[in-house]
Hints:
- By secondary structure, this protein is an alpha/beta fold.
- It has a single domain (3-216), classed as NAD(P)-binding Rossmann-like Domain (Rossmann fold), CATH 3.40.50.720.
- It has helices at 12-23, 39-42, 58-67, 95-121, 147-165, 192-205; strands at residues 3-6, 27-32, 48-52, 75-78, 127-131, 171-176, 214-216.
- Strand 4, helix 4 and strand 5 form a beta-alpha-beta unit.
- Helix 3 (58-67) packs parallel to helix 4 and helix 4 runs parallel beside helix 5 (147-165).
- The radius of gyration is 16 Å and the shape is globular.
Amino acid sequence: MPTxxxxxxxxxxGFEFVRQYxxxxxxxxxxxxxxxxxxxxxxxxxxxxxxxxDVTDTPSVEALGRALAHETIDVLIANAGIYIARDMKVTxxxxxxxxxxxxxxxxxxxxxxxxxxxxxxxxxxxxxxAVSSAVGSVGNIVDGGYYVYRSSKAALNxxxxxxxxxxxxxIATLLSPGRVRTDMNPRAPLAPEESIAGLRRIxxxxxxxxxxxxxxxxxxxxxx
Length: 224
């Protein structure tokens, strides 16, 4: 039975990743801040194992890495993220929101990558994914706004690309789920089921040559 570890698993995109992988017979290590409150996550069946994790607390990330040091993890999906200060203007900079966004959207995935690198590297799949966003693609910027979210995802793209060069023993790839209808974006046009099914197809066919690349859910390769 292959194993996948998913951060930010209690809702939205993360929850759908857990649901689909568990339904397909994978063993899922699902992390969230408060597992006791993640009732729907805990109801997904015996294949799902819950772990408490605040990805912005680096010592806690490292501690979970040590607790799971014996595991072999085929796929790591660094999914946890936030979308705040959406209307921030350059005339009203929200420093705290910006720093909070960088902490969870850009720094936390790298901390998770370091904590679970050994477990993934000894697996047969050896795949490490970070969930980014097409609006974080600097090469795709054609309009303004969303400074906080876009810049934090652009930072993630850069850091993950560097990470892809550092450990050649794993496949480190970026994913864009598209505009998915979740509580973060309730008016988005794309159903979580469709987005995650597309991302899982991409994950399944990744090869070492894809390390450092950035894929949208429909298979389109995006510029960083």
